[in-house]
Amino acid sequence: MLEVDTCCKEYRVGAFGGRALLAVRDVSFGVQPGEVVSLIGESGSGKSTIGRMILRLARVTRGTITFDGVDIAQLQGRRLKQYYGDVQGVFQDPFSSYNPIFKADRVFTMLRSEYFSGLGASEWDAKLENALDAVSLDPGAVLGKYPHQLSGGQLQRLLVARALLLDIRLLVADEIISMLDASTRIDVLNLLGDLKSRGLGILFITHDLSLGHYISDTTMILRRGRVVERGPTQVVFGNPLHPYTRTLLASVPKLHARWGDGNGGARRDDGEDAADGGPLVEVEDGHFVASLPPEPGT
Amino acid sequence: MLRVDGLAVYYQSLRGDVKAVDGATFEIADGEIMGLAGESGCGKSTLGKSLVRMDARMRYVGGSVELDGRTLPIWDDAKMNAFRFKEISIIPQYALSALNPTRKIGHMAEELLSSRDVHLDRVLPELRRRLDLVGLSESVLERFPIELSGGMKQRVVMVLSSLLDPSLLIADEVTSALDVSTQRAVSELLVEFRDRGFVKSMIVITHDLSFLYQIADTILVMYAGKLAEKAASDTIVDAPAHPYTRMLLSSLPEVGVRFAERRLTGIPGRPPSLLDPPGGCRFRARCPLAFDRCGEEPPFAEVAPVHSAACWKAAA
Residue range A254-263: average pLDDT? Predict the structure, then answer.
């Protein structure tokens, strides 16, 4: 469905844009219907940039992104609008996704005037109820409320419902869990799991390995814009081969197992440019790892 | 040794008092790292901050705080100056932005120390030693905060806040803005500070229980302005007594648990408003074990040796 092919994103930095910063380097992957792909990386790894390029919020510098075989960079006008009927994004901070002056369900009425202007009131209401039901929200509890009257979890689910109204096929979920409280975040995560079983493809962008492991079929580990490891989630977590993946896994705080219990030492990363390895090499079925120089960097 | 007894701190708002900390009673022994956990808005940061400095909206309502046998005058901003930084110190929640961007680190340290009548030269060897311990070279003193990475800034703030060997150090969400690998390194340093005796005891405030399990000796769980449970971190994780702690733990995704195999569940509902909290147990409305007696407030009482919980069912 979605194919990202050797994508690069270069930002111009410095006072006159005189220096180039490669935020994303030669990233390739695909998302199929009913598949959850998680992009896991630390800050500055380029994970959000990839999501923004797919949503056409950032231009691709080199490489192509295709959806159903069509290069999305070429889309304009009616066809671009059609693309947004298939692909939508939900972002980290639910509070800043709403205009606090208006009621929260304005996101639905705006969508209606753009995409469903021909639809009758009763049909629209039924459709809306359906979408709210899919995200387990009670219409009476959320419609007609202002954003500040709703919890972060409710707001986030409203945004997912908005995306579902369009019968989208791909959802880009950028850190949608991290602002939510522990007792409610699992519900939003389970919601993604339910949507996946209805055939939705999801690109799940996160810094949290345990969330990625819980929900995704395929995992990609990013470091400084480069994919260092990619494969089926259980294989990547069960048999991590890149030293960076291993350090990450060893640093995740777990319940029932302490850091000291024989899983390596801590790494102090002060941003020194260690070797991340070269192009991806397939080491076992579907498991790709960046080939390492003779002496592993970290 | 810290002894907090019946501490209540409210926020003033136009619509009335927000009862953010409503009767907290607990102790921290020398050498103890206590984790203070809970969801946003449960009062954990308010509790931590009130021990150091009340901001303008916070109001001391009652209770006492005793540090090493001396009463802390937390209601008196001026009198607390004698204790701040020397006896009790805090690494604030936004430590990454706590550094003055217009001052070099060394200059800032000098100003900070002179506000406590300590000359930089007197502590400079110790400062150097500690910077070295956290993996920073002395040259950071000549640098501006903008030149340092997040993890480096966090370590600078840690070294500065604990430089005068306070008895109690409060670390408020110190690692939540850091990447996982840096988070581990920084938190292991917190433990090392305690082990080397730079600080006697520590309160580590965070929403992340699995992180506390790594470094804390004991964990105190708060819910809606009240203490819910305190015990050794192993006990909290392996044998929690309060239903809230249990449900919170079972909602945490861990590496090893997958949606397709085991679906975790959250806690239905949301915490009550602290403007006008309901009487009785505040977790009652979301608790599957709630019964008639929960209309009466359960005391925060010992359910086993060094294990306290505020729940009628936990005592049984």
Answer: 75
